[in-house]
Design a protein that fits this description.
By secondary structure, the protein is α+β, with helices and mostly antiparallel strands. It is built from 4 helices and 13 strands. It has one domain (4-215): Mog1/PsbP, alpha/beta/alpha sandwich (Protein Transport Mog1p, Chain A). The chain has helices spanning 10-16, 88-94, 128-137, 196-211, and strands at residues 4-5, 22-26, 53-57, 68-73, 77-82, 95-96, 99-106, 115-120, 142-152, 155-166, 171-182, 185-191, 214-215.
Length: 216
């Protein structure tokens, strides 16, 4: 797959913006504000629907070489993203809190408007919860956060479900992300979507990525 820089990412961001084998528990404390029936509620019916595997991303030749590998839903297309260091706009769009975007997996070939985006941080970067808190805090339009912890194989994973208010769409939409620590630094996998309906339709692909997660 051909990679691209974040210089041309602006229009893309405007458009887009468990778990067999996993054990899960609520992560109580500040920011755990699950909203009944709302965007910050984990485990919707859509998220429990199985997604057909179309390939694996993270290894050599997969479109994105990452610190982790995971399965990608059928017809979703991965490509590497490189932040253009010479563009302040690209740097702002390609960095969120403690992590920078390195890969986006496009749902359009599968009939949806949205992306799974992979972000990585340098060094230890803190716990998965701390990384996600920094990631969400960097989005001034985020609210109604709810954190959960789970185990995928031997990996400790923290997930956040939240809502984002879009000034362009003049409405709030659901979003979620999970984070894992690796020896080379944290990795965040984020699912957005044009709106909450698209987000829910793409949850099976997100859950497929999470339950198949392993170190690269």
């Amino acid at each position: 797959m051909v990679g691209r820089t974040v210089r041309g990412l602006v229009p893309v961001l405007l458009v887009a913006g468990a778990l067999a084998g996993c054990s899960t528990e609520s992560d109580a404390g500040a920011g755990a504000e699950a909203s009944p029936g709302g965007g910050a509620t984990a485990g919707t019916a859509a998220g429990k629907t199985a997604a057909a595997k179309g390939g694996t991303v993270g290894g050599a030749g997969s479109g994105c070489e990452l610190r982790v590998t995971f399965d990608v839903a059928k017809r979703w297309k991965a490509r590497a993203v490189a932040v253009d260091a010479d563009s302040s706009v690209a740097a702002a769009l390609g960095t969120q809190g403690p992590v920078s975007m390195v890969c986006e997996i496009d749902a359009k070939p599968a009939g949806h408007l949205g992306f799974l985006r992979v972000w990585q941080g340098d060094g230890e970067g803190g716990t998965p919860r701390q990384v996600l808190e920094g990631f969400v805090a960097a989005d001034e339009n985020a609210s109604k956060t709810a954190y959960t912890r789970s185990t995928v194989g031997k990996l400790a994973v923290t997930e956040v479900a939240y809502t984002v208010h879009s000034k362009v769409m003049e409405e709030s939409r659901e979003a979620r992300a999970f984070a894992v620590a690796t020896p080379d630094g944290p990795v965040v996998v984020h699912l957005g979507g044009l709106d909450s309906q698209e987000h829910r339709a793409m949850l099976p692909a997100y859950e497929l990525a999470k339950r198949s997660l392993r170190l690269g």
